[in-house]
Write a structure and sequence with these properties.
This protein has 208 residues and is an alpha/beta fold. The protein folds into two domains: 101 residues, 3-Layer(aba) Sandwich (Rossmann fold); 102 residues, Rossmann fold, CATH 3.40.50.170. Helices cover 33% and strands 26% of the residues. The protein has six helices and ten strands, in the order E-H-E-H-E-H-E-H-E-H-E-E-H-E-E-E. The strands form two sheets. It has an eight-stranded mixed β-sheet with strand order 3-2-1-4-5-6-7-10, covered by helices on one side. A two-stranded antiparallel sheet has the order 8-9. Helix 1 packs parallel to helix 6. The protein is globular. Bound molecules: glycinamide ribonucleotide. The site of glycinamide ribonucleotide has 14 residues, from helix 1, strand 5 and helix 6.
Length: 208
């Protein structure tokens, strides 16, 4: 059984989707802990109700990014993860932290990377006149929102969309592709070659 630790900052709907599919589909894995950088992260309540260990490492309690990252790594390592997931975790992690979990840390980002790394992805996609938007699951590397891409989902931008309606459409797709990507990892179905990630059985890594 592989051990998964999930980092969140808020609602935690991606975390929920992963926990539910992991249990419902009998993956060779368990979500060992959910850790948040804010005590008010709503997802903590849901995770605790499922009997999952929850921890808060409040970034405001540390004098520097390095000190926060070190405390976070200690909290993560207490659960001996094979895979660390960022699921709406809204703190930038320093290079030593990223290096520590190299090749075993994934993130979901609400854009079709490499377009729109960073914040306000849906607003920027609308302002740019994009006809298509989406989300990307990728391995985390030191460069923000730039690691090897495991899976992407593309959704249409519809006339009349605003940030909220587009975000909702993308989020639905996130709930499909993030659990899928995690399942592939825990089943050892992924091969990473530089920035390219291949599914060993040739499964489609694109959801449209
Ligand atoms: C998701 O849309 C996720 O892609 C995004 O935050 C939301 C979290 O929702 N992540 C980022 O913007 C990371 N840069 P959730 O807490 O309900 O999963």
């Amino acid at each position: 059984m592989k051990r998964i630790v999930i980092l969140i900052s808020g609602r935690g709907s991606n975390m929920e989707a992963i926990v539910q599919r992991c249990a419902g589909e009998g993956w060779p894995a368990q979500v060992a802990a959910v850790i948040a950088n804010r005590a008010d992260a709503a997802g903590l309540v849901w995770a605790a109700r499922q009997g999952i260990a929850t921890t808060v490492v409040d970034h405001k309690a540390y004098p520097s990014r390095e000190a926060f990252d070190a405390a976070l790594a200690e909290a993560v390592d207490a659960h001996r993860p094979d895979l660390l997931l960022l699921a709406g975790f809204m703190r930038v992690l320093g290079a030593p932290f990223v290096q520590r979990y190299a090749s075993r840390m994934m993130n979901i980002h609400p854009s079709l990377l490499p377009a729109f790394p960073g914040l306000h992805t849906h607003r920027r996609a609308l302002e740019a006149g994009c006809q298509v938007a989406g989300a990307t699951v990728h391995f985390v590397t030191a460069e923000l929102d730039h690691g090897p891409i495991v899976m992407q989902a593309a959704v249409p931008v519809r006339p009349g969309d605003d940030e909220a309606s587009l975000a909702a459409r993308v989020l639905q797709a996130e709930h499909v592709i993030y659990p899928q990507a995690v399942r592939w990892f825990v089943e050892d179905r992924l091969e990473v070659d530089g920035l390219r990630v291949r599914h060993l059985d040739g499964a489609s890594q694109l959801l449209i």
